[in-house]
Structure formats: C-alpha cells, structure tokens
TrEMBL record:
<dbReference type="InterPro" id="IPR044638">
    <property type="entry name" value="ALDH7A1-like"/>
</dbReference>
<dbReference type="Pfam" id="PF00171">
    <property type="entry name" value="Aldedh"/>
</dbReference>
<dbReference type="InterPro" id="IPR016163">
    <property type="entry name" value="Ald_DH_C"/>
</dbReference>
<dbReference type="GO" id="GO:0003842">
    <property type="term" value="F:L-glutamate gamma-semialdehyde dehydrogenase activity"/>
</dbReference>
<keyword id="KW-0520">NAD</keyword>
<dbReference type="InterPro" id="IPR016161">
    <property type="entry name" value="Ald_DH/histidinol_DH"/>
</dbReference>
<keyword id="KW-0560">Oxidoreductase</keyword>
<feature type="domain" description="Aldehyde dehydrogenase">
    <location>
        <begin position="62"/>
        <end position="487"/>
    </location>
</feature>
<dbReference type="InterPro" id="IPR015590">
    <property type="entry name" value="Aldehyde_DH_dom"/>
</dbReference>
<protein>
    <recommendedName>
        <fullName>Aldehyde dehydrogenase domain-containing protein</fullName>
    </recommendedName>
</protein>
<dbReference type="GO" id="GO:0004029">
    <property type="term" value="F:aldehyde dehydrogenase (NAD+) activity"/>
</dbReference>
<dbReference type="InterPro" id="IPR016162">
    <property type="entry name" value="Ald_DH_N"/>
</dbReference>
<dbReference type="GO" id="GO:0010133">
    <property type="term" value="P:L-proline catabolic process to L-glutamate"/>
</dbReference>
<dbReference type="GO" id="GO:0005739">
    <property type="term" value="C:mitochondrion"/>
</dbReference>
<comment type="similarity">
    <text>Belongs to the aldehyde dehydrogenase family.</text>
</comment>
<dbReference type="InterPro" id="IPR016160">
    <property type="entry name" value="Ald_DH_CS_CYS"/>
</dbReference>
Length: 547
C-alpha cells in the first residue's frame, strides 16, 4: 500500500511539473490574481498611510503592455492629498524608530519578519504568484521574473535571526584616561523616502525598503505606477508576516506630486533609482540629501584571449537582450578585440538573438522608449562613417503592443572605435537606450588606450565586464576603470544583481548600493560617535590657567 501511495504521489508531482504551477492557488494575502487581471476584471492598487489602506479621488488607468487594454486602476494621490503622508513622516524623529540605544528589540523583530517573509516567498504558490504578476506588468520571460522573486527571497533569508542587529554593530576605542572611551554607531536617518522604477517591480523596492527598516528608518515608498501592484501585494504579505502597520507608507502618484511631497515632508534621506535626468533634479531639490542608482551605459571588453566562444556569445545575448534590454546593468557597448573577429562570435550572437520571441516574452514591449525613438537613434548612429547594422534594426511583427511602448527586434549596431571617440559622436554613441539595443566596436592591441579613454569619458559607472583570463590584461583594465559592479574573467557578464554581492555605481559620492550589509549600512545609516567620559576626576585636580 505504501509503495502504491508513493507511486501515486510521484505521478501527481510529475503531472504538476508537466504543467508548471498551474495547480497553485492564489495566496491568502493577495487581493489580485495575475491570470485574471484584464479589462473586464481590472486590478485596483491602493495607497497605505498611517496604518491604513486608502484610495484617492483620482484613478489612473494602466494599459496592458501586450495589448493596450486598460487593466489596472491605480489610486494616484494628488498634490492636494499629500497631507496624511507629510504628517506620517513628521511623526518619526530623526533618531529613528529604533537605534542601538533605543528599542533594540526591534532589530530582533525584523529578523523574525524577514524569516517569515522568506518562508512565504519560498512557497511555490507564492513565488509563482509574484513571478506571474511581474510578467503581467513588466513583461519578461518566466525564468527572468522568477529569478527576481528568488533573489528577493534569498535576501530575506540573509537577514533572519540576529543578522539585522549585526548591521548595527558598533565599535569602541579606549580614551585618554580612565572612564573615557569613544563608541561609533550606525545611526538611522529617521523619516526617509524611496523611489523605484518599473523594471524590477519586486526586487528593487523590497530590498531597499527592508534595508531602510532594518536600520530604524520610517520610509515612504513610491514605485512606478505601471508596476506598483506588485509591491502593493508584497506589502500585504509583509503585514501578514508581522510588519507593524505604522512602520512604512506606500504612495502612488505622478512625479510632480511626489516631488511636492519630498519638499514638504523633508525626509532626511531619499533613495532614487531611475533616470539620470530625474536624479539630478532631485539632487538639487533636496540639497544633496539623496543616494542614487541611476542610469547605466554599461561596457564589456573582450580581451585578446579567445576561448569558449559559444558561452561568450550566450552571455552577450543575455546581457544585452534579457528583459528586452530593460536592465540598468544591460550590455550597452561591446569592445571586441580583433582576435574575436574570426571566431564567429557576431554570427553566433545574431543567431541567439533570433531565438527570442514575443510568445515566451524573451523579447517584448519596451516601457520607456518607443519604437520610433529607438529607430531614430539607430538611424542617427548609421550616419557615422563606417557604421552598420549587425542584426535586428526592425520593429517586432504580428503583435498588439500599444504605440506608447516600444517593440524592436534585438539590435546591434557597429560603430568604428575612432569614430566613437570623436567629440561630435561620443554623446550620441553613449546615449543609454533602455531597450534591446547595443553598440559593438572592435579594437586592436595598440588601441586598448582608446578603449580605456572611452570608458573614462562615460558618465555612468554602474556595471562592466572584462572578459579575459589573462591576468595582466585584467590587472591593467581593472586598475584603470571605475564601475561599481565589475565582473572579471572569462565568465564575466554585465547583468546580475543577486543578493550575495554589492550592486551599485562607483565614482559618485551619492552612489547607492543594494543587497548586502555594506550597501544597507552605507545607504540607510550614518555614523554617530558618542564619547563617554564618566570620570573619576583626578583627586589632585586643580583649576588650570585659562587657555
């Protein structure tokens, strides 16, 4: 009987695997079902402030990026409705909701919340729910969407138990006399704000929100309205896992209203992830009280040692075109040593790009750049002498993606290195196109200096890859570059923001990181020094002369 039962269980499991996760039910915390969201059954996204879910007088309709149908209603707060959010942040003191000398039990509480949330996200029904919800609003392959959920779950696992209080580890230095010592503490900012983009609807806001909360801050979170339903559902999960309702607020609004909120509420620190243009405006408006993870025109250099061509071609395809190129770490320019020219690399990259199709969302809608804008950029590049389309360059066919979004085949344009460096071309060539678009160029042994000059002149220094196992080549390039997250070696890539290493730019004192203890401490706390001097006063002390 037990053998028969075991066989039945195995057969049931096999049947479930053959129809991936179709058997799973909607989680108990959820108020939407990804499969059922449509024009006839729209999802509604609310705000959360001062411990309560609230609506707004204004509902903004979000259109389905695959067919243009109105399918999500977002309660967007207007400029006249921000007072509850201003009041909520004002209730949080500058010394935070907790710190090393106040309510330290809350560090343990957040370790417990992380453990419960990690357990929840690890359940197949929950991870599948979020992966499919991500796909509905920011179309990408199921594997890419699920990976975002898995990174988020691993992050929460990393900060279970005592790991939250370890973030606030302090130090002491002996003083000059008995009773004196100096203690260094990681201190919260108190009221803070977080603004995140559309491309990673779960991972970026969740990791930054939890980092802010771990360190004792009270955040107000704004996610791009096109995808905010994902984080709204995650907030409901966190409440189920014990997150105190008053510890954070969640707002949907346009940029003008959020800007007004920031100016009136005066958060002591704001984390912004998004475009460089908005980042620079906020930096000025907030008088520098900001951390940025903005644009990334990310480069990859293929060294002189040609090997593993099939693997390198696959990584290049993933780096440039996964998520339809809508990653701030996407491969924007490929500097290819001339030794690779006869390897067949470009032809392999072309064939790999042609495997991508709308049906499985390995290529899909581009949410911030239209087809016309990408085509115009390509045509401008083609005016540069020696430039040519290597592959792609045409709109996607047989689709219903609305015209407000982009729909372009994976595209690569070759531009000669000498032309890239010309002052009249450099800004054009290094313009970030947040879509399935990359520039490819070639260099010879004596042109490495030109490649490094190009890297030096770029303004965004987020990710980079140096693809080589030549230790002297690696040492030379790494020692003369700056990108904050740089992969090196024959398996190097530009994309990848897992929970196990720092992800963020370098070369800018405003640069923010994500995912690691170092990132959390840098972004969400400041240094405070307390010098204890309790005596005793020496018995033979006498009033000294004035100095």
């Amino acid at each position: 009987m037990s053998r028969l039962l075991s066989r039945r269980h195995l057969a049931a499991a096999a049947a479930r695997r053959s129809a991936p996760l179709a058997w799973l039910h909607t989680p108990s915390f959820a108020t939407v079902s990804p499969q059922e969201i449509s024009g006839s059954s729209p999802a509604e996204v609310q705000n959360f402030v001062q411990g309560s879910w609230t609506a707004s007088a204004n509902w903004n309709w979000i259109v389905d990026p695959l067919n243009g149908e109105k399918f999500i209603k977002v309660a967007e707060v207007q400029g006249t409705e921000i007072e509850p959010f201003v009041e909520s942040l004002s209730k949080c003191p500058k010394h935070g909701l907790h710190n090393p000398l106040k309510a330290p039990e809350r560090y343990l509480m957040y370790g417990d919340i992380s453990a419960k949330a990690a357990h929840m996200l690890g359940q197949p029904a929950v991870s599948d729910f979020f992966a499919k919800l991500i796909q509905r609003v920011s179309p990408k392959s199921y594997q890419q969407a699920l990976a975002e959920v898995q990174v988020s779950q691993k992050f929460l696992e990393n900060f279970c138990g005592d790991q939250v209080r370890f973030l606030a580890r302090s130090f002491a230095v002996p003083g000059n006399h008995l009773g004196q010592r100096s203690n260094g503490y990681r201190w919260p900012y108190g009221p803070v704000a977080i603004i995140t983009p559309f491309n990673f609807p779960l991972e970026i806001p969740l990791l930054q929100v939890m980092g802010a909360l771990y360190m004792g801050n009270k955040p107000v979170l704004k996610v791009d309205s096109k995808v905010s339903v994902v984080m709204e559902q995650m907030l409901r999960l966190l409440h189920d896992c014990g997150l105190p309702a008053e510890d954070m607020d969640f707002i949907n609004s346009d940029g003008i209203t959020m800007n007004k909120l920031l100016l009136e509420a005066n958060p002591k620190m704001t984390l912004f992830t998004g475009s460089s243009r908005v980042a620079e405006k906020l930096a000025a408006d907030l008088n520098g009280r900001i951390k940025l993870e903005d644009a990334g025109f990310d480069w990859k250099i293929l060294g002189p040692d040609v090997q593993e061509v099939d693997y390198i071609a696959w990584v290049c395809d993933q780096d440039a075109y996964a998520c339809s190129g809508q990653k701030c770490s996407a491969q924007s320019v490929l500097f290819m040593h001339k030794n690779w020219s006869s390897s067949g690399l470009l032809e392999k990259m072309k064939k790999l790009s042609e495997r991508r199709k709308l049906e499985d969302l390995t290529i899909g809608p581009v949410l911030t750049v239209t087809t016309e804008a990408m085509t115009e950029h390509m045509n401008n590049l083609l005016k540069i002498p020696g430039s040519k389309v290597l592959f792609g360059g045409e709109p996607l066919e047989n689709h219903s993606i609305p015209k407000i979004y982009g729909a372009l085949k994976p595209t690569a344009v070759f531009v000669p290195l000498e032309e890239i460096l010309k002052s009249e071309n450099f800004e054009l060539v290094t313009k970030e196109i947040f879509g399935p678009f990359q520039v490819v160029t070639e260099y010879s042994e004596d042109q490495l200096e030109l490649v490094l000059e190009a890297c030096e002149r770029m303004n965004a220094h987020l990710t980079a890859a140096v693809v080589s196992n030549d230790p002297l080549f690696l040492q030379d390039v790494l020692g003369r570059s700056v990108n904050g997250t740089t992969y090196a070696g024959i398996r190097a890539r530009t994309t990848g923001a897992p929970q196990n290493h720092w992800f963020g730019p370098a070369g800018d004192p405003r640069g923010a990181g994500i995912g690691t203890p170092e990132a959390i401490k840098l972004v969400w706390s400041c240094h405070r020094e307390i010098i204890y001097d309790i005596g005793p006063v020496p018995k033979n002390w006498a009033l000294p002369s004035p100095t």
